[in-house]
Specification:
By secondary structure, the chain is α/β, with parallel strands linked by helices. It folds into two domains: about 50-125, Peptidase S8 propeptide/proteinase inhibitor I9 (Alpha-Beta Plaits); about 130-210 and about 225-445, Peptidase S8/S53 domain (Rossmann fold), CATH 3.40.50.200. The protein is about 35% helix and about 20% strand. It has 14 helices and 15 strands. A seven-stranded parallel beta sheet has the order 7-8-6-10-11-12-13, with helices on both faces. Strands 2-3-1-4-9 form a five-stranded antiparallel beta sheet. Strand 14 and strand 15 form a beta hairpin. The radius of gyration is 27 Å and the shape is globular.
Length: about 450
């Protein structure tokens, strides 16, 4: 057998060829990098894949254009493409960003354009009860039961002076929109009280509060927020049993949604006659889109709805949105002794963004399917005040949102709340909600809205 030996190469010759190869490779890499910089899409040249902690939807921005602006212009200049236009006469669009663009950075660049009113990432929002920290607390997850008895006899009925309120009215003529995970409309406590709504998650007319059998957020729990909307609607029905409930599904089975989706839900509610909009949801990020929608309904010259939102379950003073918006009733939670719930958020020293306190610990309310559940959270406190707003609207049908909010504020029991919370004086809102006092005030005061334009 013939054996072929490799030709010997001198060490010096080998090193020379190696260096030449390395230099050639480096030259090619540098040239490629320069080409990418020179010819990169203008929207992405200085962006990266950072998602800011997951607070907004990947590859999505929301823009509102000035009259002279067109979505075609924005798409051409910034490399975006249109996903959806918000229905109506406004020029609000949901756009898809280029693949490597950071939505927050790109939104800042688009917002600086003279043809754009504002631009922002499509922010994530959701139920305060969906956080891992809250679910680990006592009462942080629902405890289902088939017993209806505690629903009508729970402590909140007395601490809110609900029997006194029902002696004046029970919410007849008011419509409360519940923007949430959907509602079981045929629940025994809700049957006959639920009117037509919409499901913006699945794009259909039936906003049912049902699961899909999947763990969509991959946290180990399937459909963890199913029942949230039914629970919230059941609390509204407890407070205002003759009011109509408009279910609007804008949160998925994990309790997650987006600001663009919430804006569509708010638009549906206002265009279909909602007097009150319950938002047991929130985000730590402020949204120009939601602020614009809420202010528009307050300033358009017509009587807009009262917006009521959850203050959040982080036990801190960090503002939650839309609760912290100027024209929103922000609700924090207390227990049966009117003490701040362990989880409840509160106002900071200078920023008084919480409006009022209501029961939010161990609240018993309807739950799918045909059951009930005990649950704790500011999401549970919020519909007590939404129901209160419905009672006030029923007593004074032409009252503006500003008037209703003022009545909630002026009739709140400050003394009782401060006495129960000496370390949080002035930080839990104007007082503990008093439904009896507010309903009586609206019905019997000669000029209950004297500080507004209603009288």
């Amino acid at each position: 057998m013939e054996i072929e030996f490799a030709r010997a190469v001198s060490p010096a010759s080998s090193r020379t060829k190696s260096w030449r190869t390395i230099l050639a490779l480096l030259t090619a890499v540098i040239a490629a990098a320069l080409t990418c910089v020179l010819f990169a899409n203008p929207a992405t040249a200085d962006d990266d894949d950072d998602d800011d902690g997951g607070e907004y939807v990947s590859r999505q921005v929301v823009v509102e254009l000035k009259p002279a602006g067109t979505v075609g212009y924005v798409n051409r200049k910034y490399g975006t493409r249109t996903i959806s236009k918000l229905p109506g006469g406004g020029k609000i669009y949901l756009l898809k960003t280029p693949r490597r663009a950071n939505p927050a950075k790109l939104a800042r660049r688009i917002a600086a354009d003279g043809r754009v009113l504002y631009a922002e990432p499509n922010l994530k929002t959701g139920t305060p009860e969906g956080s891992a920290r809250h679910k680990a607390r006592p009462g942080g997850t629902p405890e289902p039961s088939s017993d209806p008895t505690p629903y009508l006899s729970q402590y909140a009925v007395d601490t809110l002076n609900l029997p006194e309120a029902h002696g004046v009215n029970r919410g007849d003529g008011s419509v409360v929109a519940v923007i949430d995970t959907g509602v079981q409309a045929d629940h025994p406590e809700l049957a006959g009280k639920v009117i037509a709504g919409y499901d913006f998650i699945d794009g259909e007319s039936d906003p049912a509060d049902v699961g899909n059998g999947r763990d969509d957020d991959r946290d180990g729990t399937v459909d963890e927020m199913v029942g949230h909307g039914t629970h919230v609607a059941g609390i509204v029905a407890l407070v205002a049993p003759e009011a109509e409930i408009m279910p609007i599904r804008a949160l998925d089975t994990e309790g997650r949604g987006t600001t663009f989706g919430i804006a569509k839900a708010i638009q549906f509610a206002t265009r279909n006659g909602a007097d009150v909009v319950n938002l047991s949801l929130g985000s730590s990020r402020e949204s120009d889109l939601l602020e614009d929608f809420i202010e528009e309904d307050d300033d358009d010259g017509e009587r807009g709805p009262v917006f009521v939102a959850a203050a959040g379950n982080d036990n801190n003073a960090l503002e939650q949105h839309p609760a912290a918006e100027e024209d929103v009733v922000s609700v924090t939670a207390v227990d049966s002794e009117k003490k701040k719930s362990e989880f409840a958020n509160f106002s900071g020293g200078d920023e008084k963004w919480v409006t009022v306190a209501a029961p939010g610990t161990d609240i018993y309310a309807p739950f799918p399917q045909d059951r009930y559940a005990m649950w704790s959270g500011t999401s549970m406190a919020t519909p007590f005040v939404a129901g209160q707003a419905a009672l006030i609207q029923s007593a004074k049908p032409m009252a503006s949102a500003e008037c209703v909010t003022g009545i909630i504020d002026v009739t709140a029991d400050k003394a009782a709340l401060d006495a129960a919370n000496p370390t949080f004086v002035g930080r839990l809102g104007s007082g503990h909600a008093d439904l009896g006092a507010s309903t009586d005030y609206a019905a019997n005061q000669p000029r209950p809205c004297a500080d507004t334009d209603d009288d």
